[in-house]
Amino acid sequence: MKRVRIHAGKVGLVFKNGNYKCVITQGLHWLKFNEHVIVYSLDLAFNTPTALEILLKDQTLADMLHVINVEDNQMVLVYSNNNFKNVLTAGRHTFWRDLVSYRFITVDLSDITIPETINKALYTNNALRLHIRTFEVAAHEKAVLIIDDTFDKILDHGTYHYWRNNQTIKIAKADLRQLQLEVGGQELLTKDKATVRINFYAQYKVTDIETALLRNKDYEKQLYTNLQLVLRSFIGAYTLDELLDQKDNIAKAVVEDVQTQAQKLGVTVLHAGLRDVILPGDMKEIMNQVLIAQKKAQANVVTRREETASTRSLLNTAKLMEDNSMLFKLKEMEYVEKIADKIGEITVAGNGNVIEQLKDIFSVNK
Predict the structure, then answer these.
(1) I need a labelling partner for 134 at 20 to 30 A (CA). Which of 49, 183, 210, 349 fits?
(2) Nearest CA among 57, 46, 37, 22 for reference residue 99
């Protein structure tokens, strides 16, 4: 005989010759020959030393245990005294009753949605986050949710959590801000066979996310190609001079023409414009020569116009002086004054008639 003491918060399983016999609780107990006891703590999960089915035949022991069966498509969240403790996966799990208050929440993993009853603060818990998939959609984005390659719904901005199971989950995001697309370095032929290089831009927004992401592949590349083709068509319909004169009108026409195709891509083109029209080197030289010739011709016209006006003014002055002798005398005095301003000194012979000599110098004989 051997005496065994079971302390508070403990329990013992008695085995004889390796076979389970009974369960003993707090107190002093005597063991017979070939009997031994395994002591367990009631605040820990129960790890059976033999087949659980054999132990559960003892109704006393069965009443002391929580037996949790978790199927393959399930998961169980364990709460100890109302605090989350761990996660149980597929299999059979046992816990002691009475000392610790346990609560078990069974989750059906065939549904990826996490129930509202599970506190979101637990999503970052090390034991639980291994079973959760997280997706983030920025404030300027929207996304489409695709489950098992099938469209499910549109997601607004925010953080989304789903159970990790055998289903595939993907999200495709689109930027909802105003975007700019550059169509640069396009070498095109004008109507008069001049080669020009065009830098074009377009501003657009994604307005139908489902159309843009699900019904089209690389909607931005398709929009680029559409702009490129429409631009090529319009440039080929204008001569070089018309192109340079009507850049703004061409941009508006391109926007109007590409708008229908853009709507099929789920986007709206807001504005577009020709940023640069670059001519090759020899074409620049020719254009500069034409410009210089035009400016010289304009300058020559202005010069001739001024000469004609000056001659007409002189003719009018001459007619006035011819009709008015006093006006003629005033004009004489004006010119004499101008001449006198340019004379540094006057030498007068001393024959006593100085006043008459000065008069002769400045008088004008008609």
Answers:
(1) 210
(2) 46
List Cα–Cα distances, 52 to 37, 99, 272, in angstroms.
17, 21, 75
Query: Which residues have C-beta within 8 Å of that of residue 312, sequence separation ≥ 6?
Result: none
Is the separation of the CB atoms in 118 and 103 below 8 Å?
no
Alpha-carbon distance 46 to 49, whole Å? Answer: 9
Round to the nearest angstrom and report the end-to-end CA distance of the chain: 171
Is 75 in contact with 107 (CB distance < 8 Å)?
yes
Predicted confidence band of residue 65 (pLDDT cuts 50, 70, 90): very high
Residue corresponding to tokens 């080197």: 281
Q: Are 273 and 203 a contacting pair, CB within 8 Å?
A: no
Residues 6+ apart with CB under 8 A from 247: 273, 274, 277
Question: Residue 255 in contact with residue 271, Cβ under 8 Å?
Answer: yes
pTM, two decimals, is 0.67
Query: Residue 283's pLDDT is what?
Result: 58
In single-letter form, the type of residue at position 142 comes to K
